[in-house]
Structures are given as structure tokens and as C-alpha cells.
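Good morning C.,

I know you're traveling, so I'll keep this short. The sequence:
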Amino acid sequence: MAWSVRLVAIAVLIGALEYLATWRSLLVPVPARVLPWIGLQGSAALYVISVAPGHVSFGPTILFVTSVIVGYCVPYGRDAADQMATVVLLGSAAAAVAGTGDAVAAFHWFITAQACVAYVTAGLAKLGSPIWRAGDAVGKLLSTDMFGRRSWGHWIRQNRWICRSLTYFTIVYECLFPLVLTRVPIVVGAILVTGLIFHVATAFLMRLNTFPWAFCATYPGILYCCSLG
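The C-alpha cells, ready to paste straight into the viewer:
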């Protein structure tokens, strides 16, 4: 559980630093009254990251509470990484409070199920979108100012076969993610390594810096569940 908590704490810390660095320049500024909560959130994240594994009992609880407060007070919608981080923190806080081996095992199964639901839901949503089915979505996304880098987006759109391949690969990968539940080592390894590469690339190309940490925080739980039996 310690590694999942540490990874999600890095996501929380990055998010807190991004808020503190840009709160005045946002289209709708973050209310000043929220800043102390963001500071507490970042401090708790630093503690969880630096403390020895197995000694993070109250860290997840503080992170969960401050994340909920910040999410409620900040006038922006929360992205998938924020939601995943909150779910992981909720499960880890509950397991830490319970303090039993069964609670830790339940936590691992909980975040494994959450990861499968999150990926397959995202994949099915894309499958239902005409833009994604047409194979143009990745190129168009990367051509936006908010979620892309125009030079990369332009190059990908100029190379239509690359655009379609990346678009369809994203749909197929997300829909097939629950195959980790087969517990076949080569399948599990391929899916998780691909996921790591996918999220790192997304962080670079789309500036979604918290995504690799928040989603990969579920991977230790998946490995735990796949090691049983």
C-alpha cells in the first residue's frame, strides 16, 4: 500500500504546486481562502513521500480530507487524475484507519477494480464518439492550446496513418485494460508497461502532469492482486 500512497502523493503535490504557481493568472482565480488548504495538502504530500514505508498511517487521511476541501472550493472541474487520486486516498485512508492485513488486501482489490472501471469507461466513451471512431481525435486534441502542443498536433494530423493508429490504439488499450484480471504474467506486464508509457507520453504531449502518478498509483495494487493464487 505504501507505494500506491507515495505515487498518489506525488500527483497531489504536483497539483498543489500548479495551483500555487498559477492561482492569480487563471481565468477564474483560485480564492485566496483556499491557499492555506493547498499548502497543507502539499505539506502532507511531502510528508507521505519522504516518510519510511509502513509509517504513513495519518498521511492518507490528511491528503484525502484536504483534497476534498480543495476540490470543493476551487472553481474548476476536476480531471480524471484528480478523481483517481481521491479514490486511492479514500481507500488508503480507510485501510490505514482499520490497520489490519485484510483491510490492506481490500484496498488493493478496491483500487484494482477502480482502475479497470476507469480505463474501460474511458475507452467505451471514446468508442461512442464519432470523432474518435473517425480516427481524428488524437491529432485534434494535440492541436489545441489547452491540451496539446501545436507542432506535434500538426505533424500528427499531416500523417493520417499515425493519427489513426494512435487514436484507435488508445480506444483498444483502454477497453482491454481489464485483461489484467486474467493474472497471466505476460499479459499483465504488457498492459502495465504500456500504461506507464502511455501516461508519460500524455503528460509530455498534453501537459497532464498528474496523470502518470495518479493512475500508476493503482499499479502496485494490480500487481498485488495478480500475485495471489
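Safe travels,
E.
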